[in-house]
Amino acid sequence: MADALESKTTSLRDGPRGPKPRRTFSRRNILLYGTLFVIAVYYAIPLYVMIVTSLKGMPEVRLGNIFSPPLEITFAPWVKAWSEACTGLTCRGLSIGFWNSVRITIPSVIISTIIASVNGYGLANWRFKGANVFFTILIFGSFIPYQVLLYPVVILLREIGLYGDLAGLVIVHTIFGMPILTLLFRNYFSSLPEELFKAARVDGAGFWGIFLRVMLPMSIPIFAVAIILQVTGIWNDFLFGVVYTGPESYPMTVALNNIVNSTQGVVEYNVNMAATIITGLVPLTIYFVSGKLFVRGIAAGAVKG
Amino acid sequence: MKRPNQLFRNFSAKIAAIPMIVTALFVFVGGTAWTVVYSFTKSGLLPRLKWVGLDQYERLWTTKRWIVSIQNLAIYGISMLVLVFVIGFILATLIDQKVRFENVIRTVILYPFALSFVVTGLVWQWILNPEFGIQSIIRDLGWTNFAFDPLYNPKIAIFGVLIAGLWQGSGLVMVLMLAGLRGIDQEIWKAARVDGIPAWKTYLFIVIPMMRPVFITTLVLVVSGIVKLYDLIVAQTGGGPGIATEVPAKYVYDMMFGASNLGQGFAASTMMLVTVALIVIPWAMLEFGGKKHG
């Protein structure tokens, strides 16, 4: 077929003209696109299986194939996962965990982003003696396994009376998000032209004045990256949630795990999958909507300045 | 630019840096020191300063569950490292062939990375379920003796976790490698082609050595992720069957908050810290030490 197309454009009498036609169906391309297609299908399958299973009734799930599309679409598993599924103790579904996660994520994201942006700005433009020492400790601190710091932070929170409280978890997320976010902001503010900062200085603006009136308006994209990074990271957290909150304030990931892995009663795979996909919905939506910004966020961890 | 009072120089900047200083000194340095110190004590339900020397470490290394945890982490870690780099790099080279729909393909490969380990573990628990998942489907196709039940077979259970971990994490490596490949000067490719060097040789002997910095930072990211392996295990296997998929991070958590055996938890987490330090410190010396002196 490729040959036929080629002979059309090249007449013998005139000799070859124009650019060499591209062979869209060359063996190389078939192999390349075939491989990529298979790979993409492999990565997509779990999402597909989650959706398909969550839309089946239990009799249909028991009949067999996890890959077959539902014969009769039902949203009952979603409803049950949201409001009735049992977590071992209570049967109030995922909704409580969802709202806990919302109440954890929003203040954590706001506070950690504010603190880290001020840190980054200070490190980029107002470096005082010793500032880089703290920054280096912070960066190395991000490699410390969380398990090492779990208990000291328990003591810290107990001392200030916030152990087991949502506010305590907000502090924890602010602390552990600080290294990567500070790095992100520091690198961004360092990349801005220094003349800008100097001009504002000459005009008499101080630390906060320059930050609020010059830097902030210019750094919307990096704030977006930081917020995406934090929302997905905090929403997906499991360890801190299980350590620093109690059953009443468990975030969604912990509630999900308790629902699916609770050993009581008959296992309802469709409800479990519905619960799983509901929990994944927030980060997935952010990922699909934000696209390149998400990639920039994760790459930020790899770009050392 | 000299000013008289050192303390009040950049005073606002210093005030603003207080959260960072507190975090760095109290939490990271102080917390680490605290845990290491208390790993030499007989802390049970509550931490207390009753010295027992290396007892906790002796107990740790004679506990079967800890040994299994370490072995699992080693098997998982090495397989994960090798495979995630091979898969990530091959995916990146495939996508770098100026393919159409690049964005779609990249989006599909990377989306698992947006999902939490809990979600990842639960999906793969379902797909690997022998009664309904892959095993039953292949049996239905006619191979009635086909056996693939990693989550119920203690011998291969950790590889069931590995499948899920690779699915979740390989997209990240792909993205970083792709960024590395795009950073290579196109002239190098042209020069290699002029010299008649086949593409695979160019990748292996020219491009990969040039991507050393990307490889190293990716390595550090992947390794620190592997050591933290916890949520995935809890969600997918709960450490089972038996203790077949236990990992150090889970040992620490269970000792501290389940078994009221804080001392063991501190000793185990200190061992985790040592492992990370053995990797991060040489890397840091290579990366940052060289610049200062040369």
Radius of gyration of chain B: 24 Å
Number of domains of chain A: 2
Percentage of helical residues of chain A?
Answer: over 70%
Question: How many beta-strand elements of chain B?
Answer: 0
* Major sheet size, sense and barrel closure of chain B: none
Number of helices of chain B: 14
Distance between the termini of chain B: 29 Å
SSE ordering of chain A: HHHHHHHHHHHHHHH
Main beta sheet of chain A:
none
Brief synopsis:
The complex is a heterodimer of chains A (305) and B (294). Chain A has helices at residues 2-9, 27-54, 58-63, 76-83, 95-125, 131-141, 146-159, 166-191, 194-202, 207-218, 220-236, 239-244, 252-261, 269-290, 292-300.
Q: Can you tell me about this structure?
A:
The complex is a heterodimer of chains A (305) and B (294). Chain A is mainly α and 305 residues long. Chain A has helices at residues 2-9, 27-54, 58-63, 76-83, 95-125, 131-141, 146-159, 166-191, 194-202, 207-218, 220-236, 239-244, 252-261, 269-290, 292-300. Chain A is flat, with a radius of gyration of 26 Å. Chain B has helices spanning 11-16, 18-38, 55-62, 64-95, 102-114, 117-127, 134-140, 157-182, 186-194, 199-210, 212-227, 231-236, 248-258, 262-293. Chain B is an all-alpha fold and 294 residues long. Chain B contains 14 helices and no strands. Chains A and B meet through helix 2, helix 5, helix 6, helix 7 and helix 8 of A and helix 1, helix 2, helix 4, helix 5 and helix 6 of B.
